Amino acid sequence: MQFDPRQLAAFDATLQTGSLSAAALSLRITLAATSLRIKALEESLGQRLLVRGKVARATPAGQALLTHIKQVRLLEADLQHTLQPSSHSAAYQSINVAVNADSLASWFFPGIQAALQKHQLTLNVTVDDQDHTLEWLKNGEVIGCITTLPSALRGCVAEPLGTMRYRCVAAPGLRDKLIAVKSAKLPRATAQQGTIGLHQLITQPAIGFNRKDGLQDQFLRNCFGVSDLAYPRHYIPATDAYHHALVNGLGWGMQADIQAPDDLGSGLLVDLFPGQYVDVPLFWHHWQREAPQAGRLTLAIKEAAGVLLV
Fold first, then answer.
1. How high is the pLDDT of residue 163?
2. pLDDT at 146 over 70
3. Which residues, 6 or more positions from 39, have their beta carbon under 8 angstroms from its beta carbon?
4. Which of 292, 259, 309 is nearest to 95 (CA)?
5. Which of 1, 29, 167, 222 has the most other CB atoms within 10 Å of its CB?
6. CA gap 33, 275 in Å, rounded
7. 119: pLDDT confidence band, cut at 50, 70 and 90?
8. What's the first-to-final CA gap in the chain, in angstroms?
9. 58 falls in which pLDDT band (50, 70, 90)?
């Protein structure tokens, strides 16, 4: 079938702005015209595309259509770049991706910077926990994502990138404070690692990135065999601030070796449980049929990960 570009534009703008009224403003048409175009699109497809609420969101059919719109726009931009290489509007192409914060703060941009400049790409990056970035691809809002999940969505490919290794670290002063804590019997808290046990560790707050961050719980399961354990936590959803909180002794937390490789050697932070760590495998998920520029980004990400990740 042939789509009406005005209907597609109204649909896309509604999802990008979150409402019909905001979409109408961005398209410089009336609210009634925006609503009529989307209604006509839904009728032509025989599918409901939008869930109209406080914030408009796509139905599964709408998500599939949004993915199609983004693919077509990338292909059109790539063609324009080929046919009019000197055109100012074709100089750079923007690509939407979802990346976990730790990759973004360590290997991601240093690894792909040269490719972005060579192929004149700009990125619109959505940051989310590595276990949740796949939702952005599923919803059609990005063309690729870095995630821990190995299974690809229908029509997509999951490329293994490598592993980020996380260790349980703290400032030296906090480590000494933990060692000095007197033994106290707590349920299932008998396992010991060196001079610090579980019962000592949880007397001090952990530092998590946000409430989606499950690395601390995963470490406790791996190291001590406990789960669903209540302990105090700070949530600091910024990588620089997270690192500063660790260094300043605000709490203990999980840090990837690649994020600050000199911290342990310099004594700025100490590994609380040497030999214990959590390995987080990463995968790059992208559309199976992707535009040439998106394919160049995929290649750059894979090459960067092959050099910089474990």
1. 96
2. yes
3. none
4. 292
5. 167
6. 63
7. confident
8. 47
9. confident
Q: How many domains does the chain have?
A: 1
Name the amino acid, one letter, at 279. Answer: D
Give the closest residue to 253 by CA, choosing from 229, 235, 230.
235
CB-based contact 264:169 (threshold 8 Å):
yes
d(CA 29, CA 21) in angstroms, rounded, equals 10
Residue 139 lies in a domain: no
Q: 13-27, 87-101, 210-224, 285-299: lowest mean pLDDT where?
A: 87-101
Judge whether 58 and 135 are in contact, CB under 8 Å.
no
Taking CA atoms, 117 is separated from 210, 214, 296, 300, 303, in Å, by 32, 35, 12, 11, 16
3-state secondary structure of 125: strand
Amino acid at 70: K
Complete DSSP assignment for 73-109:
HHHHHHHHHHH-TT-STTS-EEEEEEE-HHHHTTTHH
Residue identified by tokens 């919803």 is 139
The answer to the question of residue 74 being in a domain is no
Helical axes 292-308 vs 108-118, angle rounded to 10°: 140
As given in the structure block, the two tokens for residue 234 are 């700070």
Residue range(s) defining the domain that contains residue 172: 165-279
What's 271's domain CATH number? 3.40.190.10
Q: Measure Cα distances from 242 to 180, 235, 259 in Å.
A: 25, 8, 11
Assess if residue 260 is contained within a domain.
yes
* SS3 call for 286: strand
Rounded Cα–Cα distance for residues 267 and 107 (Å) = 23
How far apart, in whole angstroms, are the C-alpha atoms of residue 163 and residue 280? 5
Burial tier of 296 (Cβ tally within 10 Å: 0-12, 13-18, 19+):
buried
**Residue 144 resides in a domain:** no
Structure tokens at 201: 């560790």
Closest-CA residue to 71 (of 287, 297, 302): 287
